[in-house]
Design brief:
The protein has 203 residues and is mainly alpha-helical. Helix content is 57%, strand content 10%. The chain has helices spanning 6-16, 30-40, 56-65, 81-88, 101-104, 117-125, 132-143, 145-163, 167-197; strands at 20-23, 48-52, 69-71, 93-96, 111-114. The strands form two sheets. A three-stranded parallel β-sheet has the order 3-4-5. It has a two-stranded parallel ribbon with strand order 1-2.
Length: 203
């Protein structure tokens, strides 16, 4: 649980002087309970509150009305459904640039990728600069079921076509696909680095 960095989100919200709601189940594991008692409870007050587990309706209501979603994960997340859900609600996401979060968030457009608590606090204060319509558009075009299904069908069609090719042509096709993937990933990281290289003053 400590790897999620919730205490850092509370610190950033305090620095930004912004209210924060922390939701999620507290499981009865000694490590989780100790982390909550030592790192979370002392940081709670009338402006930073823990509301426990949230069902779908409450989560959607909270995400839709939030200034932003703060994700201070200290580990490389393989994905993040809640980040995609926030974008679908038109809510920007602020997170450390770790794992899949660096691919989900378009820095300065659908949220902010930050490096420390101070940058997170600045980003929280600047969240109203993000266009909710762009966040929703991003969710529809990148994370919708229809987009995912279309990508699968496209992949199946390519695999079926590759199965009909001679072995040497098949190997060359796979190599070219790998090169295209690496190139696209490098371009994406370059764009993020360019955005991070000149952070704007926030408010």
């Amino acid at each position: 649980m400590s790897g999620k960095g919730f205490h850092l989100a509370l610190d950033a919200a305090t620095q930004a002087n912004i209210d924060l709601i922390l939701g999620g189940a507290l499981f009865p594991y000694p490590e989780h309970e100790r982390y909550f008692a030592d790192e979370i409870a002392p940081r709670l007050d009338r402006h930073r509150r823990y509301v426990g587990a949230c069902d779908f309706a409450r989560k959607r209501r909270l995400l839709s009305s939030a200034r932003c979603l703060v994700m201070p994960s200290m580990v490389a997340e393989p994905s993040s459904l809640v980040a995609m859900e926030a974008l679908a609600c038109g809510t920007p996401v602020i997170a450390f640039d770790r794992g899949a979060l660096g691919e989900i968030i378009e820095h300065g457009k659908s949220g902010f990728l930050v490096r420390d608590v101070q940058e997170m606090a600045d980003a929280i204060a600047s969240a109203n600069e993000i266009d909710p319509a762009f966040c929703r558009h991003t969710a529809r075009t990148r994370f919708s079921r229809s987009r995912m299904a279309g990508d699968y069908f496209h992949l199946y069609e390519r695999l079926a076509a590759m199965d009909k090719q001679p072995a040497n042509t098949l190997a060359e096709t796979i190599r070219m696909d790998e090169q295209e993937t690496v190139s696209a990933t490098q371009q994406a990281h370059q764009q993020i680095e360019m955005s991070n290289a000149a952070p704007a003053e926030r408010q």
